[in-house]
Amino acid sequence: MLDKKEDGGLKTAVKALRFFVRLAAKHKPSQLAVTLLYSLTKAGLPFVGVLLPKLVLDELSGARDPSRLLLYAVAAAGVSALCYLLSEWLRLRVERGGILLDSILDKLLGEKTCSMDYQYLEDPETLTILQRARQGRMTRGGMYAVMVWHLPNTLTNLFTCLGMLWVVAQLDWWVLALLLLCVAANLLLLRKNSDAANAFMMHMGDFNRMFAYLYFLAFDFTNGKDIRLFHTAPMIQARMREYNGKVVEVEKESYLVMCRCGVLQALLAQAQLGVVYISLLVQVFQTGLSIGDFVMFAAAASSFATTLTATFSEATQSLMTARLIAPYRQFLRLQDRMPKQEGHVDEEAQALVFENVSFRYPRAQA
Fold this sequence. Notes:
The protein has helices at 10-27, 30-43, 45-60, 66-115, 124-138, 142-168, 173-219, 224-230, 233-287, 291-323, 325-333. By secondary structure, it is mostly helical. α4 (66-115) runs antiparallel to α6 (142-168). The radius of gyration is 29 Å and the shape is elongated.
């Protein structure tokens, strides 16, 4: 059974991310620095599209110096090309490091399985933990997806969001306050969405173990004789239908919550844009805001809304996958030897008596 301390909450996700960091620091120390540099480099690209229109429009409405316009264009193209090439090179480095760490995770799981007490292989609770550990390894790329995709992309979007928020905050303090309220609301929706997705994946770990057992009974030829002899086919089919129904119920409940959260996040994104455009119109009439500034603030607000949604989407994926690693970590913490009950053997006993003797097939549940 999953530890109470590993109940799938936010602390569990933080522990999983800390597990990744320690793993990378031990086996691939440069991975963390490369990931951070990749995120910073990629985050700088959107700012070119925000600042360049402002500079060009201000110049066109002012001196209209062709040489300066050419300088802006060349500088923007050069910075964009440099950021893109550097980010692509760093992305390849991140992927290579992720493959190495992923192989180490497989090695750790295999070594632990080989060193465990054989009795663990028939223990239902241990089998559930092992199934969840394997599911965390394979679902959506498992740990590899967290290390190589979701976590770097989350950092990239976060850096971009902070930069765009600073640009938009130059309009007025109340705009910043309203945007921060929207961010707080998105955080609450992120938590609710992640909890629903995590609950679904945890249930699927239990269901998948039972499906594996039922499919083994139904499709392994070594069981054919017993199925025909004891007429167990209807029972197996009934259990499959039962678990299929449970999966549908859990899936409906989880996806309904995630759908609601997605709709609310989309509405919040539109509300953010509305707040910024109202502030821009006020600034135009009160202070004579220039066309270049108007376009810059509008582009920054649009980029902030889009990037904020992407940030929470990537963060949700990161948290979902990171929470799936809790069973993996719990499996590694299991003792290699199952605790045995202490007993006293009477040395004067002259016979062995067997009571409640029974037999079960391999992989049997009871």
